[in-house]
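Appendix C reproduces, verbatim, an entry submitted by the partner laboratory led by Prof. M.T., so that reviewers can inspect both the input and the predicted structure.
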Amino acid sequence: MDVVLSPPPTRNYRLTNASAAALARTENPALPDVMLVLDTEGIIRDATLSNLFAAEGVADWIGTAWADTVSESDGDGLRRMLEYARGTGVCAFRNVTQHFPSGLQLPVEYTTVLLGGHTGFLAVGKNLRAVAELQSRLVEAQQAMERDYWKLREVETRYRLLFNSSRDAVLLLRAANLRIVDLNPAAAQALGMTATHVKGAVDLRFPDALVAGERDLFDEMLRRIRERGKAPGVLFRLGPAQTPWLVHASLVSCAQEEVLLVQLTPVVAQQTLAELADPVRIEDLIEGGPDGFVVINHEGTILRANRAFLEQVQLGSETAVLGEPLGRWLGRPGADLTVLLANVVRLGAVRLFSTVLHGALGTEVQAEISAAGRGGKQGGTIGVFIRDVSRRLAAGDQGPGIDGVMESLTRQIGKTTLRKLVDETVAVVEHRYIEAALDLTGGNRTAAAELLGLSRQSLYVKLGRYGLEDEAKVAADATG
């Protein structure tokens, strides 16, 4: 149905548009931002702007086709809009980019109405700049939310990979009811759960996995954590086999609730200690001993360490050394531990093994190591005592019999040349020194080269020079 408006007399046509322009310049917020009076061909005959565009002069629009004042891509749309309004009387909501004479470009939404008597059109426009800005901000907010979402997914993926691949047993408990929120495969194995039971672990309370007599001890540990923020590790027995585990817990605040991060560290209990009437007392004696004491496996990995050893290597927590190789803190990381293990396997015990102990803060002290245990390829554990001897070493103690050796060399003056004497002495010393290094390392040439401060190629040359290749091979075969 056409919208029919009674056209004003021709003599009042300009007056009518002038009145519309006057109204548009008022501060009435209900007035449109742009009003255009068009003839039947779409030529602008009059134009008025709201007070938002008071600085714009639109006199250049008069006599110009409306389609020429918008973007080229919007021109055809305006022509179709006029055709539609000519047939139906009104065509609403056409968004175009309006070009103002000053060069300003704004998105404008137009509604076109056919004037009475088909004398022309009235186009009413609304500035969409605020809407466009809001839409732009909405798009930016959506993109930011999407980026944050993918960052969160990446963090969750990394957390899950680290959580599941960790060799340490880790659980998350709700602080309110101590129910298991999450646990990794190592923790599931420690609690004796199979893969089918892990999904239902959230319905379990961690204290239910403890021996009945130890649940009060766990409650006391939690009370201390809530009061002081931390508590020392406590030994508990877990799983169907009641395997001993050292349990550490810490309180973590999350967005919705507090959770407890529980770490389980395996404890190697020696059979001899378990059979004694009072194993706790012996454990206390070792813990409070003046010398460092560690328990290592057949590969040299630390399974247990006392407080004196932690002080020697300048670390404050046993957790920092558990699972680390003992050779990390010895003078020659690649050689000393190899020599120690080789001699324990061959002899069953090592006494007064000299080395240098490195602290985490850069200190170096002379140390003597004594070790005993079962550490062959079949597995087993080795107890290692480490004593700091730097204070008792005399400054002039350079080795026994040095004066006698020098007197023997002095008697050779006149009987041989100095060069020949030096060469023979060096050959004897090298031969005996290489033999001793091979003996200490059980024929391990790589470790022997590191002990001697030689490259492997240089050691091989000297082995051939002194005919020691067969001896090194026999020693290595005997150790293997």
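The radius of gyration is 45 Å. Additional entries are available on request from the coordinating office.
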